[in-house]
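User: Could you go from structure to sequence for me? I need the amino acid at each position, not a summary. Structure tokens:
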């Protein structure tokens, strides 16, 4: 019998992405960052939505396995895995391996529309070993302005594109090139927070704390 079944659950982000970490920190819930080395090779020719879900699930499950392998968890675990890719005309663009790759990607994206897909997997493991899963993805359409080669080179020189799918970050200098998007902004950053909130709530971990029936202080009632 487990002695701490009523202890606060552990919330774990299975990602080393500082952008995902910052987004999750917005909700002021304690969480841990435990990245993993999940295999990101996917055979066949998956569509972008399939690929990001496969990899998000793989990352979450790899971190769960790490936790179980180090000893039976004495508290419920909530583990978040995510993956993001850019797609243009059906071709998937991941992270650039070098500056030349970033230049090629940005040259292809500039002056055109593309889609960003973020897959999300949330796992809940009880102290008794039962695992529940929620898996899905979010898609956002992004317009990128026309850019000159010198603008692309200047952007690459900032270092920002080199660890991001599609070679740009909408939350940084890359925002200077994005006049419009259709969909969830946070999907482009890398963590679809609306979907995350729905998944966690469904699994019993609301990001907006329950006030246990206490009346809210309504500012409209103030004189």
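Assistant: Here is the amino acid at each position, in order:
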């Amino acid at each position: 019998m487990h002695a701490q079944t009523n202890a606060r659950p552990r919330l774990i982000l299975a990602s080393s992405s500082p952008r995902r970490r910052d987004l999750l920190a917005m909700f002021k819930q304690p969480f841990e960052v435990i990245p993993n080395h999940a295999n990101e090779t996917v055979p066949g020719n998956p569509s972008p939505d399939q690929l990001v879900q496969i990899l998000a699930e793989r990352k979450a499950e790899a971190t769960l396995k790490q936790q179980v392998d180090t000893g039976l968890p004495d508290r419920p675990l909530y583990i978040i895995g995510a993956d993001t890719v850019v797609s243009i005309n059906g071709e998937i663009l991941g992270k650039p391996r070098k500056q030349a790759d970033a230049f090629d990607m940005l040259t292809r994206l500039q002056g055109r529309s593309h889609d960003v897909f973020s897959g999300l997997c949330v796992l809940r493991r009880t102290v008794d070993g039962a695992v529940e899963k929620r898996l899905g993805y979010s898609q956002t359409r992004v317009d990128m302005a026309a850019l000159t080669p010198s603008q692309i080179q200047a952007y690459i020189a900032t270092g920002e594109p080199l660890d991001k799918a599609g070679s740009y970050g909408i939350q940084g200098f890359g925002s200077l090139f994005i006049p419009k998007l259709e969909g969830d902004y946070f999907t482009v950053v890398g963590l679809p927070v609306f979907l995350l909130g729905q998944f966690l709530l469904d699994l019993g971990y609301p990001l907006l704390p329950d006030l246990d029936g206490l009346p809210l202080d309504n500012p409209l009632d103030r004189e």
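One structural detail worth keeping in mind: The helical segments are 18-25, 48-69, 99-109, 149-157, 185-189, 193-202.
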